[in-house]
Amino acid sequence: MNADTRAPLLDVRALTKYFPLRGTTARVHAVDDVTFAIARGESVGLVGESGCGKSTLVKLIARVLDPTDGRIYFDGADVGTIPAERFARVPARARIQMVFQDPADSLNPRFTAFDTIADPLRRLGTAPTGQSLRTRVAEVAELVGLPRALLGRYPHQLSGGQQQRVGIGRAIALRPSLLILDEPTSALDVSVQAVILHLLADLRERLGMAYLFVSHDLNVVRMVTERVLVMYLGRIVESGPAAAIFDAAAHPYTRALVPAIPVLGSARHRERVRLSGEPRSPVDPSPTTCRFFGRCPDGFERCEREMPVLAHITDDHEAACFAARR
Amino acid sequence: MSFTVAKGETVGIVGESGSGKSVTALAIMGILHPAARVTSGRAVFGGLDLVAASESQRREYRGRELSMIFQNPRAALNPIRTVGRQICDVLLRHANLPRVQVRPRAMELLARVQIPDAARRFDAYPFELSGGMCQRVMIALAIACAPALIVADEPTTGLDVTTQAGILDLLDELRRTTRTATIVITHDLGLAAERCDRIVVMHAGHVVETAPAHRLFTHPRHPYTARLIASTPRPGAKLTELTPITGAVPDLRGALPVCRYRSRCDRGTDACDEAPLPRIAVDDGHVVACRFPALT
């Protein structure tokens, strides 16, 4: 990733977040030395299993959590040093927004759809009151395909798909340049998911936003992203164009992850790499042992005494593995 | 709704939320919410009608002949009892084993579901185990008395895909070795396609189509099944190929049309409003509840 010539929108360098374990000096390495960038208007997928640090990474970037170490540059400015509690009041807040997994849980039950969409506009927008506010909310509702008649309703009076439209409306009301989508469709039925995915693709095209799309559903990620980051126990183990990740994965973890997704219409019980055992503990893991060692079908003695770092497979495809498939 | 499951067979019940998948499972098990009643119909299991049977008869069957795997294993397990004790409880209640053999048998079951270091995990509480491990414990409970039928309600929803694959491999293996019949309830069409012999598609409380798995996904005849498949992301497919299903499930509280898919259907005619809802056998083992089955 040549950050200098492409002037990325988001540039994350050696980002690290440790959580202390209460009553001990041990620390959970939730995000460990993560470096990547997102270009303006680019759609990047972030995949990995639960507990791999996806959510922590997303919270660091959304600036609701402070990093232990590392830098977050947004549009050239160092935003990682602004404490999370103050970030809510800086202008950059308007430009990094988030859509959450469960719309029913992430909407204020005592806010109507109108209030939910108006909330960020009132706090940070340029049209905080009166007719101009109503006009802006109506515009946003139009953009996310929410019938104006539903603006007066509370979350429990809306369907799952409508709730998620409200959640998306709140996120795009301030016209962010980076939208973080944390499992935006995994609580929805497939028929509704299809609608929301189309809406998100359409909004990106119309508003020119960049997406960081977090999901465990790799088939969905493949449809809506251009580039994919694969995380395993706090570290990015592979990064590359979506097509390369899905069709020519280099890291053994990705090669186990991709075929594990059940697929419609494929031959039953395809050949796939089966992972044995449980992931290593994220509590003070050895800095000189690959995190995937022990579960990895390709591991050898070097993996136990040296931590592999991201290395180029091709120009835009990297993997952190000594046995990476080229 | 009607369907059958043969010995050693895995039947998948698929459909969107609110289609009645879970209610069907709970009705079979006889553990519906007290406010719910099975108004008519039968659930015949090895000759016994479970719906008509007394609660004590059902209780005898549950656990020994019929068992259920729930969606959220951590919530379904007893949080203040070690997993080993919970397996012993089931064995003591149903297995007719001499007391001294109960603990070793429970240990064996933990090993059977591939829990590493079973002797140590025996004394673990559910909160000390990962979600995948809890689901393995749940499967150990379900197979403790070698049941003839296992009902698995979204057994891997909420688990990671690699964990999911391991759990499903385990269920497959148990089925092959013990010839247990399995009903898998899932919203994941891919999972159903890969793991089930036969599929039952539900929509708004009705079975709209039943067919062998491969046939259903290659030749869906009910318009709802076809739309459901078209709205499921497939690897390599483009977003433009993903088509949503229009409309919504009818309100099940009011008077219902003969065909509950009618308002969402693009091929419906007035003939669709005439009772009864047809059940057309379009092929061997392939039945569709539609007057105008799609030609595929």
Task: Describe the model.
The complex is a heterodimer of chains A (326) and B (296). Chain A is of the alpha/beta class and 326 residues long. Chain A contains twelve helices and twelve strands. Chain A has an eight-stranded mixed beta sheet with strand order 6-7-8-3-9-10-12-11, with helices on both faces. In chain A, strands 2-1-4-5 form a four-stranded antiparallel beta sheet, covered by helices on one side. The longest helix of chain A has 18 residues, at 190-207. Chain A is globular and about 70 Å long. With 296 residues, chain B is α/β, with parallel strands linked by helices. Chain B has helices at residues 21-29, 55-61, 73-76, 83-94, 99-112, 118-121, 131-143, 161-178, 189-195, 213-218, 223-230, and strands at 10-14, 44-45, 48-49, 66-69, 149-153, 181-186, 198-203, 206-212, 280-283, 286-288. In chain B, strand 9 (280-283) and strand 10 form a beta hairpin. In chain B, helix 4 (83-94) packs across helix 5 (99-112), helix 5 crosses helix 7 (131-143) and helix 7 runs parallel beside helix 8 (161-178).
